[in-house]
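Researcher: Checking consistency across runs. Here is Transcription factor GRAS again:
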Amino acid sequence: MEWGFPSYLSEARIAMETLFVSPFISSESWFQKWAEGRESMASLKDFGLKGRAMCKESLNEMKELVKESESPYGIRFEGDNENEMVLEWNGTPLVRVSAWM
């Protein structure tokens, strides 16, 4: 967020981060609950689906959108065959998207 706000709106940026980002980043119990839920969730592999690898062009496009080299945000692939794309903030996963067929 800090990269999208002008410097004279720093208080507005701090307020936005406090309201929307902080609860998801700083809550240790939330991370623990998320990890437990992810482990117990039935895998889509169990339903006969196969992960579909995401293309490198999508990865490069997302890295450009979040200005990865200039900001605390990052994008990476995960999964057995790179079928998951993860948006991170300072190394903390925020959003995970996967492709299956």
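Researcher: Does this match what you'd expect to see?
Model: One thing to look at in this run: The beta strands are 73-78, 84-89, 92-98.
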